[in-house]
Recover the amino acids of this structure.
């Protein structure tokens, strides 16, 4: 395991394409230390709670609640028929109050608000605490809770995660380590994304021997309040909240137009249509995908007049709508 590369002394205005389009993760020490929310958290948990409630406007939030014996790990239950936590909906102020009451508990239940819109939950927060990224339509979310462990997973968008309060440990793996992470189901997941089934606190190398290889390629960093981490698209990340009260604000964005669907949809369709084919046919389809998708796409269509390329033409909004309608029609059975 190696340390994630770091830079210090940067301010949000310094985040240019050299960072936001990088293909390797980067720790940005002290990037948001000047945020008022960070300063409130450094003062005390009570000061942070008061600051957040000053921006809250009667919003409800989704909450995950796991028993003390889960050790903060939000995961599947023992037989993989469900999960080891409950999902609830509550008022933000009530959940925050519960977190404050649990601060001194030796073995508290895990209480976790994940992926909640900052603008919906805390209107006005970003007027005082924001990166102002020069990207299109970032999704800005908050993650609030006590000690928790989120299994390694990847996200399609690029990501800047800003630690507002508490400490967090991030363990990252490049996309090609999927073979060594023992990933669970694609469509039955704790929080939307497929996750590694390896318990990072107690890896079972008899069941998951290839995880040793993943660790050899892993990168890790522990972040303090005011630090941030750039996570490139598709990088696997395991996240641990290490303090009794933790707040993270993250920014997700894609470098592709809105009309492009998630590639996960293509993966699910491939499972539906190709995984059960005989090996020689799967090899043929791999060549076809290489020809049209993964190799030089221009060479694949250069012999077709531009006006006659149809689905093979460069994609735009109209073309995406037509292709989506075509697919929906083909999928009707």
């Amino acid at each position: 395991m190696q340390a994630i590369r770091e830079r210090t002394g940067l301010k949000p205005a310094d985040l240019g394409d050299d960072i936001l389009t990088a293909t390797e993760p980067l720790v940005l020490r002290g990037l948001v230390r000047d945020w008022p929310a960070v300063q409130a958290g450094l003062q005390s948990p009570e000061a942070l709670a008061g600051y957040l409630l000053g921006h809250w406007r009667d919003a409800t939030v989704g909450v995950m609640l796991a028993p003390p014996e889960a050790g903060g790990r939000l995961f599947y239950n023992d037989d993989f028929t469900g999960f080891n936590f409950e999902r609830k909906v509550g008022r933000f102020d009530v959940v925050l109050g519960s977190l404050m009451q649990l601060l001194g508990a030796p073995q508290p239940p895990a209480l976790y608000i994940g992926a909640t819109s900052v603008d919906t939950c805390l209107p006005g927060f970003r007027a005082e605490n924001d990166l102002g990224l020069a990207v299109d339509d970032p999704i800005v979310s908050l993650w609030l809770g006590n000690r928790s462990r989120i299994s390694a997973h990847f996200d399609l968008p690029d990501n800047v995660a800003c630690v507002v309060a508490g400490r967090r440990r991030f363990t990252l793996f490049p996309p090609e380590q999927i073979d060594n992470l023992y990933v669970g189901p694609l469509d039955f997941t704790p929080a939307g994304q497929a996750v590694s089934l390896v318990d990072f606190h107690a890896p079972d190398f008899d069941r998951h021997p290839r995880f040793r290889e993943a660790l050899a390629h892993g990168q890790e960093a522990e972040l303090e309040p005011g630090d941030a981490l750039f996570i490139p698209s598709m990088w696997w990340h395991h996240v641990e909240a290490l303090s009794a009260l933790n707040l993270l604000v993250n920014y997700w964005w894609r470098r592709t137009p809105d009309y492009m669907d998630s590639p996960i949809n293509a993966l699910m369709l491939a499972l539906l249509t190709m995984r059960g084919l005989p090996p020689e046919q799967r090899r043929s389809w791999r060549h076809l995908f290489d020809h049209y998708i993964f190799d030089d796409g221009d060479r694949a269509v250069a012999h077709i007049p531009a006006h006659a390329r149809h689905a093979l033409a460069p994609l735009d909004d109209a073309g995406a709508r037509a292709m989506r309608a075509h697919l929906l029609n083909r999928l009707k059975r």
Q: What stands out?
A: The chain has a mean pLDDT of 95. The CA atoms of residues 68 and 107 lie 6 Å apart. Residues 263-331 form one domain.
